[in-house]
Amino acid sequence: MGAVDCPQGAAVSAEDFGLKGPRGWAFRGVELHADPGTLVAIEGPSGSGRTCLLLALTGRMRSTQGQAEVAGLRLPGRAAAVRRISALGPVPGVSELDPAFTVAEHLRERALLQRRFDGSPRSLLRSPATRAATARAAIDAALEAAGLDLTGLPKAGRTSVRDLERLEALRLSLALALIGRPRLLAVDDTDLKLPASDRSEAWKLLRTLADRGTTVLAVCSEAPEDTLTVRTGTPTATGTAGEAETLDRTAGDTTADDTTTGKETADASAETGRA
User: Domain map of the chain by residue range?
Assistant: First the structure.
């Protein structure tokens, strides 16, 4: 994998961090201290608050207990600023791939959105050819970083998302997130439906991204031994160096799946207030 210009990762810390929504505690008592460029695994069973913690640490859900900081930005007060330096990979119900789109359509749409919302006024004065070349370079760099070779797909860039293998879809989601060169990258369900060999490749990819500077938060059912791990669904919230833990949901919310749909996000936001 060639070198790609990567931003400095964001340090992430949390102290007694928690979120209580309409159905009880999503997570509670999280302690976390991760240096820039760290791969952090958020491990736990479905329904243990993993996705809510992921979204709270990236400024997408508003916490209700304790505090957290991302790159020195205090949560929940600076959530908007945290969103600007972070990006979501695959998160069901929040940042899913559209199965009707082709790979190339997804990439073009993300590059256009990136240019529209994050481009400087000066960049708008560039010629269409220059803007197109810049977008193409950003896409190529993101694909390289995510390890997705379009020539290896059945129809190259014209391949529909529905025809991608699970690992290929994960790589595409990561490439889309990386177009914005985030300092913090969040990935949900990292090991979902992946055979052992593909699971190993997924973690290798995330570890490479972290080694190259981007801080990575990855939700999983079982974390590799060499990752900084936050475990959800445990009976206590006392962590040790390299390991933080959270409380499970309360009795009124133990059967809920932690996959956060748009409606569930809205429900939690209505209870706690948006960032």
Answer: 12-272
Instruction: Quote the longest CA-to-CA distance of the chain.
Output: 59
User: CA-to-CA distance for 52 and 77, rounded, in angstroms?
Assistant: 17
Q: What is the pLDDT of residue 107?
A: 96
Question: Helix or strand or coil: residue 175?
Answer: helix
DSSP 149: -
Q: In angstroms, rounded to a whole number, what is the distance separating the alpha carbons of residues 120 and 15?
A: 36
- pLDDT tens digits along 221-253: 999 988 999 998 754 332 322 333 332 222 222
Query: Is the whole model's pTM more than 0.85, yes or no?
Result: no
Place of tokens 């400095």: 8
User: What is the predicted pLDDT for the residue at 121?
Assistant: 59
**Which tokens go with 34?**
């991760």
Q: Nearest to residue 137, comparing CAs of 179, 187, 94, 87?
A: 179
User: What six digits make up the tokens of 79?
Assistant: 């959530």
Q: Is 104 exposed, middle or buried (0-12, 13-18, 19+ CB in 10 A)?
A: middle
User: What pLDDT is stored for residue 7 in this prediction?
Assistant: 65
**Token reading at 199:** 């699971």
Q: Give the pLDDT confidence score for residue 4 in this predicted structure.
A: 46
Q: Return the CATH fold of 12-272.
A: Rossmann fold (3.40.50)
Beta strands in the chain (DSSP E): 12-21, 24-34, 39-43, 65-70, 73-75, 86-88, 184-187, 215-220, 228-234, 243-247
- pLDDT value, residue 126: 67
- C-alpha 196/C-alpha 212 separation (Å) is 24
- How many helices (H) does the chain have, and how many strands (E)? 7, 10
Q: What angle do CA 159, 162, 166 make, to 5 degrees?
A: 100
Which parts of the chain register pLDDT below 70?
A: 1-7, 116-126, 234-275
